[in-house]
Amino acid sequence: MQEIIETKTNNKEYSDERLEGFKKNILNIIKKHQETISNLTNHVGPENTVSVDEKNSETTDEELHSVVKNKQTIILLKEKVRDLENALKRIENKTYGTCRLTGKLINPARLDLIPEVRFDIPPKRN
Hints:
Blueprint lengths: L3 E3 L5 E3 L1 H29 L16 H32 L15 H6 L13
């Protein structure tokens, strides 16, 4: 299978087959993140919402810390899902995997590890 193809304007892009593989990976990650968000939201729900000002004598510091940590995790996962959904849009318009800075293809191993990445790692200078 040819992973990289050359376009009419001499730009390179990933083949449709390779893009489909990236898409499957991204969709799996989104599904896992959404499940985690759902589980954490159920755990942190309104009954567990406690602000520092509202903290009562029955709420321990550990419980408060847990709620805050879970809420932060939910925010980070929602941002990650948004970035992954944007990556899906780039797959659809065939710009996925192209470095926004250099215009060159990003290493597929990097895309497998960080599928929402938009920039390649610059080469080390000696």
